[in-house]
Design goal:
By secondary structure, the chain is α/β, with parallel strands linked by helices. The protein is built from eleven helices and 14 strands.
Length: about 350
């Protein structure tokens, strides 16, 4: 089965210099390695051409963001499996085979992620994906090994192979045919939560998303935006509304949005008093943007299949974490997940 590792790069020369050599060392026999460049204005391309002339480069004409950047690039890649890989990830020996073997033995698996540990504190899980992604009924994402800003130490507590709700876009293995069948990443997202939206659409088509702990990678994290950023706040809230509206079953849309309106008001006030006016304004702008494009999102929804919720937490994870002091995934009652 042909596998392609595709790195979407934007001004990431320092990460290419740091992580591309070990990626080639541990991956070249198992996969083709491709760098898709989003019109970088640093010397990324020159660096690749000089130091890694055998690496295939796909050049996007402009910075198209994560979603459209990958969609444009993957249309030019012929493979059975894509591995979407952030440039700031350090891979480990034999990180590809366990995942591809799992997916190859079960055609119902659409996508999968490895264990994501922190490059900075290597004993802990990393924020973006950790040991597999989940979501609550109201759209708030969390992970095994990471609840909000609480990162667990990896003590082997999440070394089981399980079905999850979403696989991180930092290192996502996905069947190429299903990626395109599902419509790829939603380009209106630009960045943030597009992988959750894709995984939800794949699940609504009847496929599974899995976690494979036998594959381990280390992620620096932070991406193109700092962890504390009003732009990140804006994209996270705006895109979260879109993925909920597109993918929720009909019987939950009104209930969820009514409660989210209240929850977002609380979040906006919290940002106003702790992070400043910019984050408060970002939430307001996110609402305006979502409602101003509702007709377009509604048209997308009409094209999608909507299955009953599966692997979704029934309760509100914000209340569970902040009011009931449930700081770890293992603190959550498994009975409170939709089967």
């Amino acid at each position: 089965m042909r596998t392609a590792v595709v790195i979407l790069n934007w001004n990431g020369r320092k990460y290419l210099e740091q992580f591309l050599s070990p990626l080639i060392q541990y991956s070249s026999e198992a996969a083709e390695i491709i760098v898709a460049d989003n019109a970088s204005n640093d010397d990324s391309i020159a660096f690749l051409e000089t130091n890694f002339p055998s690496i295939r480069i796909i050049r996007n004409a402009s910075n198209e963001g994560f979603a459209r950047g990958y969609n444009l690039a993957l249309k030019q890649v012929k493979a059975d499996y894509y591995i979407l890989l952030n440039s700031d990830i350090e891979v480990t020996p034999d990180w590809i085979h366990p995942v591809i073997d799992m997916m190859g033995n079960d055609p119902s698996i659409a996508a999968c992620q490895p264990k994501i540990r922190s490059y900075i504190d290597r004993s802990k899980f990393e924020y973006a994906g950790a040991a597999g992604g989940f979501i609550d009924k109201y759209g708030y994402p969390f992970c095994r090994g990471r609840m909000f800003q609480s990162l667990e130490e990896d003590l082997g507590q999440y070394d089981d192979v399980i079905e999850i709700f979403w696989a991180t876009g930092a290192c996502m293995f996905v069947r190429a045919d299903l990626f395109h069948q599902a419509g790829g990443l939603d380009e209106d997202f630009f960045a943030h939560m597009e992988e959750i939206d894709l995984c939800w659409r794949l699940k609504n088509l009847g496929y599974k998303i899995m976690y494979c702990p036998q594959s381990v990678v280390y992620h620096i994290g932070g991406g193109t935006l700092p962890k504390i950023s009003w732009r990140k706040t804006y994209y996270n809230f705006r895109n979260n509304f879109s993925l909920l509206y597109k993918n929720l079953p009909d019987n939950l849309v009104c209930e969820v949005f009514a409660k989210r309106f209240v929850l977002d008001g609380i979040a906006a006030l919290k940002f106003l008093f702790t992070a400043g006016f910019k984050d408060f304004w970002a939430i307001y702008r996110a609402h305006i943007s979502f409602y101003s494009t509702l007709s377009k999102t509604k048209a997308k929804r009409k094209l999608l299949k909507h299955a009953p919720l599966h692997k979704v937490y029934r309760k509100n994870i914000v209340f569970e974490y902040f009011l009931r002091n449930k700081k770890k995934f293992t603190d959550l009652d498994p009975k409170n997940f939709y089967d």
